[in-house]
């Protein structure tokens, strides 16, 4: 039986004691006996309490040590994470700078390419216009030359045809004259015969 239970028994005994003229009548010997039992058990209970207190203090020390260790580990881990985050941030900033430089260079190249394209297109357009102008002039010159040659050919053909017509006219005139002469000769012959 524990000390607390024994003390409770004493308390119950005192409360249940008989009252005579408003005063409790108790057996002093019984109370002494009960108190002796408490005293006998007291050192053993105290020892157990001291052991429990000692264990509690040891547990608290262990817990405190473990907490300090965890705190140190957590602090170191957090510091490592912070350092790693800073390093990654610096790396990302560096990569962003590289990307920004690359984008700027790409924009410059695109701008230069666009300008080169425009210049080339202008040169091509100019050359095309010049070629078209030359071709148009050559075509006009060719047409003029052809027209002149055609006129010359027509003129020559006319002259040849006029010359041929004159010859034919002379030939026809001679043929008619010959026919007339022959007719005249025939008529004369016929008249002589008749």
What would you note in describing this structure?
The chain has a domain at 3-113. It has two helices and two strands. The chain has helices at residues 3-15, 28-193, and strands spanning 18-20, 23-25. It has a two-stranded antiparallel sheet with strand order 1-2. Helix 1 (3-15) packs across helix 2 (28-193). It is rod-shaped and about 225 Å long. The N and C termini lie far apart (205 Å).
Labels describing this entry:
single chain; 194 residues; 92% helix; mainly alpha
Distance between the termini: 205 Å
The percent range for helix content is: over 70%
- Helix/strand/pairing class, anyone? mainly alpha
Task: Give the percentage of residues in beta strands.
Answer: under 5%
């Amino acid at each position: 039986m524990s000390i607390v239970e024994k003390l409770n028994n004493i308390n119950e005994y005192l409360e249940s004691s008989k009252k005579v003229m408003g005063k409790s009548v108790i057996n002093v010997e019984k109370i002494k006996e009960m108190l002796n039992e408490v005293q006998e058990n007291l050192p053993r209970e105290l020892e157990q309490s001291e052991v429990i207190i000692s264990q509690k203090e040891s547990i608290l020390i262990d817990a405190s040590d473990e907490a300090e260790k965890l705190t140190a580990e957590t602090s170191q881990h957090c510091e490592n994470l912070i350092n790693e985050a800073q390093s990654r941030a610096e790396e990302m900033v560096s990569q962003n700078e590289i990307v920004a430089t690359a984008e700027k260079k790409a924009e410059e190249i695109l701008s230069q390419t666009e300008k080169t394209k425009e210049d080339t297109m202008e040169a091509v357009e100019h050359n095309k216009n010049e070629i078209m102008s030359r071709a148009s002039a050559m075509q006009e010159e060719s047409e003029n030359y052809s027209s002149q040659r055609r006129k010359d050919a027509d003129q020559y053909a006319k002259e040849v045809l006029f010359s041929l017509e004159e010859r034919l006219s002379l030939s026809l005139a001679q043929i008619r004259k010959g026919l007339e002469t022959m007719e005249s000769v025939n008529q004369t012959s016929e008249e002589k015969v008749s």
